[in-house]
């Protein structure tokens, strides 16, 4: 199978990137040193080509009611255009089909979904729309393959990025509060991200991508690969779909109970009944943070023992460049204590249970 | 192109071996291997005194991304390990053939090392692996 390429593919190769297959896309994993890239984002500013992610516009008079049925969080929380909402999209069993961000726009909504789940998500979204077509006003679901996406993240990211935006967007982008967005034409700027640092995610026409990327580089913003993106999001305690959660796991067992809007009680969203049953049963597992106390490196899907409370597993793990220790997300029994052991290739190594995030805005949030 | 010093011997699993004057062998991973792994964050060395079988997994190098076994290129007894790697695993990235050495053995068979690849053969091996 031929790998898909983003607009910046040749630019990444010219910059010395090691390219890997990520969900069918040829993407940069690092440009030399993953750890240096990680630190650059925590200390200054880095940019990520995330054009493999899928931008989907949901428009039409039925869009609001459609999304209130489709998503576990409630788009009615988006009181004004420009607000953003993180949500899970569930199957009827309450399992997570994907996690996504929905932005409210002047007339409609924009949803950004994961690259790895693109086809599944679009098929599901169209299927749900078709099923509701008799009862709902029309909904238009449109994939925006004409748009690219660049995330600029780090303490200096906004200052370096603002002067490079189209003139008309500079003042509105500067005024953005966290988790809001502004747009003009095909340029869309959101103060969101996946690193635990301040910054923007910029959705822009593919024709403008190369010059914007080059201008950011000239301003001192470093290109960052998917490797550092993963350690940054792990430190920030953000889930990665496909490893920390999937279709078999509910948001309640993924540290995402806060994203489920239970009120109003009469909002009938897909998966609601299953989640209510799980909530009533009470005994579900929880997703926690682990800090390794012995030697080694935690990885995803290692077995975790919580003594009499039972067994669990790490869902993703790595070395934390900011903390200098190994950390993980793990799904363990709800009544597990503060001490667990992890089976690292046959050796039982002690780890401490903590509440993610581990790092936010460059600072450790946990005691080592 | 990765660095392949001419005076060393190499195993197909990307370990290098240096013959020391006292008959011991110093072992590490090649420049090519460290580059593939990326930034190392943890190295588990063998125990001094342990007996290693040729081809047996005896150490682990872990990068931010993945863990990888290191194999004993020839049989022998571990006589030293690089203690500095406990605090500075990045030495393997910075100086794979020098400060980034991993362990030293007294070989069971002094001539076994001659069966390993020389630099030209290892270069060809890398070429073939593509």
Oligomer: heterodimer
Roughly what is the average pLDDT of chain A, rounded to an integer? 97
Give the structural class of chain B. alpha+beta
CATH fold-type name of chain B = OB fold (Dihydrolipoamide Acetyltransferase, E2P)
Task: Please give the share of residues in helix of chain A.
Answer: 10-25%
CATH H-tier superfamily of the largest domain in chain A:
Probable tRNA modification gtpase trme, domain 1
Say what the CATH topology of the largest domain in chain A is.
Gyrase A, domain 2
How would you describe this protein?
The complex is a heterodimer of chains A (368) and B (130). Chain A has 368 residues and is an alpha+beta fold. Helix content of chain A is 23%, strand content 32%. Chain A folds into 2 domains: 1-233, Gyrase A, domain 2 (2-Layer Sandwich), CATH 3.30.1360; 251-364, Beta Barrel (Elongation Factor Tu (Ef-tu), domain 3). Chain A is built from 9 helices and 21 strands. Chain A has a 6-stranded mixed beta sheet with strand order 10-11-12-9-3-13. Chain A is globular, with a radius of gyration of 21 Å. In chain A, 45% of the residues are buried. Chain B has one domain: OB fold (Dihydrolipoamide Acetyltransferase, E2P) (Beta Barrel), CATH 2.40.50. Chain B is built from 3 helices and 9 strands; from the N terminus they run βββαβββββαβα. At the A-B interface, helix 2 of A face strand 4 and strand 6 of B.
């Amino acid at each position: 199978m031929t790998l898909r390429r983003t607009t910046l593919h040749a630019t990444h190769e010219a910059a010395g990137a090691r390219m890997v297959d990520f969900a069918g896309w040829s993407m940069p994993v690092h440009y030399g040193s993953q750890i240096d890239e990680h630190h650059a984002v925590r200390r200054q500013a880095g940019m990520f080509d995330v054009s493999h992610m899928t931008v989907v516009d949901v428009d039409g008079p039925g869009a609001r009611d459609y999304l209130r049925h489709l998503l576990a969080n409630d788009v009615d929380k988006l009181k004004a255009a420009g607000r953003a909402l993180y949500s899970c999209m569930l199957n009827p069993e309450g399992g997570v089909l994907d996690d996504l961000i929905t932005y409210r726009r002047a007339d409609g909504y924009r949803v950004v979904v994961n690259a790895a789940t693109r086809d599944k998500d679009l098929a599901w979204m169209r299927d749900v729309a078709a099923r509701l077509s008799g009862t709902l006003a029309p909904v238009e679901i449109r994939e925006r393959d004409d748009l690219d996406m660049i995330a600029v993240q780090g303490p200096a990211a906004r200052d370096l990025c603002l002067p490079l935006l189209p003139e008309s967007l500079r003042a509105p982008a500067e005024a953005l509060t966290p988790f809001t967005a502004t747009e003009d034409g095909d340029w869309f700027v959101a103060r969101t991200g996946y690193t635990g640092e301040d910054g923007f995610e910029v959705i822009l026409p593919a024709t403008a991508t190369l010059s914007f990327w080059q201008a950011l580089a000239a301003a001192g913003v470093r290109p960052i690969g998917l490797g550092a993106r993963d350690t940054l999001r792990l430190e920030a305690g953000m889930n990665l779909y496909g490893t920390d959660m999937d279709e078999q796991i509910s948001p309640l067992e993924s540290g995402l109970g806060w994203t489920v809007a239970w009120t109003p009680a009469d909002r009938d969203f897909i998966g609601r009944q299953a989640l209510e049953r799980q909530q009533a049963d009470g005994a579900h597992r929880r997703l926690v943070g682990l800090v390794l106390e012995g030697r080694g490196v935690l990885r995803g899907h290692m077995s975790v023992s919580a003594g009499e409370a039972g067994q669990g597993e790490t869902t993703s793990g790595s070395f934390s460049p900011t903390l200098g220790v190994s950390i993980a997300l793990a799904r363990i029994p709800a009544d597990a204590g503060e001490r667990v052991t992890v089976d690292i290739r046959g050796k039982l190594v002690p780890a401490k249970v903590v509440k993610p995030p581990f790092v936010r805005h460059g600072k450790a949030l946990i005691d080592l | 192109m990765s660095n392949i010093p001419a005076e060393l011997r190499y195993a197909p699993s990307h370990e290098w071996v240096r013959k020391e004057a006292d008959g011991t062998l110093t072992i590490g991973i090649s420049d090519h291997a460290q580059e593939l792994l990326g930034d190392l964050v943890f190295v588990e060395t063998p125990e001094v005194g342990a007996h290693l079988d040729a081809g047996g997994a005896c150490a682990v190098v872990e990068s931010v991304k993945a863990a990888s076994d290191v194999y004993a290129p020839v049989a022998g007894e571990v006589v030293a390990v690089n203690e500095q790697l406990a605090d500075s695993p990045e030495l393997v990235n910075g100086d794979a053939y020098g400060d980034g050495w991993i362990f030293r053995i007294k070989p069971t068979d002094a001539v076994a090392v001659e069966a390993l690849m020389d630099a030209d053969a290892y270069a060809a091996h890398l070429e073939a692996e593509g």
